[in-house]
Amino acid sequence: MIGKADRQMSFSDYWLLGKISEVSYYHRLRTWVFNNLNEEMFQPLFSYYGRESISPVYTFTAMLIQFEKGYSDREMEEESRFDDRIKYALTAPRDFDGIDAVTLCDHRKRLFNSEIGKEIFIKTISQAKEVGLFNKDNLHIIDSFMIWGSCARQDTYTMIYQGIKMVLRFMKFYEMEDASKKILKRTDYEENIKKPKIAWENEKEKAKLLEELVKDALSLVENIKTKKDIKDDLKKAIELLERIALQDVEITNDGHVKMIEGTAKDRIISVVDDEMRHGRKTSSKLSDGYKAEIITGGEKGSVVVGIEVDGANIADGEHMSDLIEQSRRNGVDIDKLYGDCAYSDFEEIEKRKEEGTDFCIRVPEATNPSGGFSKEEFKIDLEKGTVECPNGHIKQFDTEKTQKHEQVTVKFRAEECNDCPLKDQCTKSKKGRTINIHPYEKEIQEQREYQKTDEFKEDYAKRPNVERNISELTRHGGRKGRYRGKLKIRWQMIMVAINNNIKVIMKHISKICNRQIKKGEVCPKTA
Known about the structure:
Elements: H1 11-17, H2 25-36, H3 56-69, H4 73-82, H5 84-90, H6 101-112, H7 116-130, E1 140-148, H8 156-173, H9 177-183, H10 203-225, H11 232-246, E2 249-251, E3 257-259, E4 277-280, E5 286-297, E6 303-311, H12 320-329, E7 336-339, H13 346-354, E8 358-361, E9 379-381, E10 386-388, E11 394-396, H14 399-403, E12 408-411, H15 414-418, H16 423-426, E13 434-437, H17 441-450, H18 454-460, H19 465-478, H20 486-518
Parallel strand pairs: 1-7, 7-8
Antiparallel strand pairs: 1-5, 2-3, 4-5, 5-6, 9-10, 10-11, 12-13
């Protein structure tokens, strides 16, 4: 049963009012919560019968404070009992007994599977519009940042071993464990260890262990697949086990198992959180976990208006279309969008331009990894359908394909290239140089020329405003995942975005109030 917030002030509470700075996070959060949150919003999460819980207004606000200050549930329990600033922000009286960690965990679990966080996020966007944050300085910018996973990355041996143990736990629960004992070669799966104890510096022992683990895993999977009416959680566990058993290995014709070279595509890196992925923000910066993509809006791009979360291996720009649509659903029409090279998807750009959205997005410069002539050194005539190399050789290509936005590959003959005096500056291939004509080559060429102008440079200089947002989000709860799985990480990012938007809204209202008080005018109603 839902609990009610105690809003009755005592003399002690009134005394505290003047002690908390009006420009502090605590005061601004309290003011926003007082005017915007009530128990009715959270009623769908609770029964109408039973023992009364702590007010969800308190717990939701406490979760916002946790992300802002980095508190764990136990730390939040202590702070809510003894810190007057926290009680003040919660809108609770000074004699409030605090929120225990178990209640925080219970209410959070209810919120994970509801749309309430999303609804409050949309509410903050509407308020930002109401208070005038979407003005002439409005900026819509798209960018991404990495989120560290909450679980450790596991090696292949650990994943398969732990995957087998996980399946065996489910089998024991469903009273199927007797069947497993007959098919498994190893007998140490019930031991309380992360992976088998062997001489890890011995390559033969490692190869033997890998073969045993893979064969045990596949035998277990095949055995369970023959059963009828497999429970959903067990089915999911065996699908995961089969995938991790095969993703890093190959089975030779004679039945032996060996590790493959390189990294499997979309590789699972943990059985504890199977949605975490390897990722790179730059060529030198690795990250394991998730990636968040955001669109900002409002004055100087300070308000988060859309957010998506995916595995860390997903390329930047993958969710550009989804974010534009999400922003519209959230009540924000994007007239112009700023982004870096990762968002130079001209198929999407041309589609959105027809809908009235303009773009200020940089196209990456043409480069040649081997250090020779780049594509820009070749004269590409899209109307005549010709490519001329730096030495004057000309090749034809099909203009009908480029007009249909199809990719075209132009190959210069090996005889021409091998006898060319400029070959060392062009290609190391004995088969000749190859030039790919992009489906949107015309638009890319035009954009590269436009990027050289002062007009573009002045306009594009607005894009880095998003870096302030990302810094704010990552410093206050957005850098490290607290939970497992995309659903929960996305909820975490929504809460972090709500916090950001509240701070921006309340700061903007304070500025308006200060200006109007100086003029002798009445301060507008707070959000």
